[in-house]
Amino acid sequence: MSKIISWVGALVVLLAVVSAPSYSFAKTENAVAQPVTTQPAEVKPEYPLPYPGVLPDHPLYSLKALRDKILDMLIVDPIRKSEFYILQGDKRLQMGVMLVDKGRTTLGEQVVSKGEKYMYQAVYGLMTLKQGRKEIPGYLLDRLEQSLAKHAEVLGTLVTRATEPDKSGLAGSLELVGKLTGELPKLK
User: Fold this and answer.
1) Domain that holds residue 109
2) In whole angstroms, what is the distance from residue 176 CA to residue 188 CA?
3) Would you say residue 94 has pLDDT above 80?
4) Would the keyword Signal turn up in this protein's UniProt record (predicted)?
5) How does 39-48 read in b/e, with b if 16+ C-beta sit within 10 Å?
6) Which of 18, 49, 119, 142 could form an S-S bond across to 89 if both were Cys, CB 3.0 to 4.6 Å?
């Protein structure tokens, strides 16, 4: 009986503490509210790139590349294959950024170029599916659109940071992204 009374007492104290009003002693100014005008900020895609794992300058990268080729051959569903290509394109873009940050700009440009070829495969794989009168899921179109917007954003910054020999390759990748973005309305 005494345990029940102590539990009820503890519960009452807890409820009193939780529901007690709190006071704030902060000084407030009598300020007149001014209308705030905001200019629309440049909308950047909220699309995080995945962590790529092992980079091409690592000795074990060939095993990762072999695994990716095997996965590519094993995926038969065109929707899943497009998802895989988008993921690979995003990973390659992030690899390229990391390589450029390490000072390996030429290798970074080559990796980014391969990533954009994955994006090309994703878009044209979905176009083939659409021509076959099959429905493309909305989430996949949204993801593809966000991914291409992120690719354009990142490639734009990479082009400005790159040295002259690699700048043309990155600009070509940026041009391909623009072309692929132009193909998106055909998928809807």
Assistant:
1) 61-187
2) 20
3) yes
4) yes
5) eeeeeeeebe
6) 119
Backbone angles phi, psi at 136, to 5 degrees: -100, 125
Could you tell me the two tokens for 184?
Answer: 């998106």
**CB distance 47 to 147 below 8 Å:** yes
Nearest-10 crossing angle of helices 138-161, 78-101: 20
- Is the per-residue pLDDT at 18 higher than 70? no
Q: Which of 85, 91, 110, 104 minimizes the C-alpha distance to 53? A: 91
Handedness of CA 108, 46, 152, 82 (dihedral sign): positive
The CA distance from 121 to 27, in Å, is: 61
3-state secondary structure of 142: helix
- Distance, in Å, from the CA atom of 84 to the CA atom of 167, rounded to the nearest integer, reads 28
Assigned token pair, 28? 């407030």
Residue 92 has pLDDT above 50, yes or no: yes
Task: Record the tokens describing residue 23, joined without a space.
Answer: 């006071």
Residue 25 has pLDDT above 50, yes or no: no
CATH number, domain of 69, equals: 1.20.58
Helices (H), 1-137: 2-19, 61-74, 78-101, 105-131
Region 50-76: mean pLDDT is: 96
Per the domain annotation, does 167 fall within a domain?
Answer: yes
CA angle, 182 as apex, 74 and 132 as ends, to 5°?
A: 45
- Neighbour count for residue 56 (Cβ, 10 Å): 20
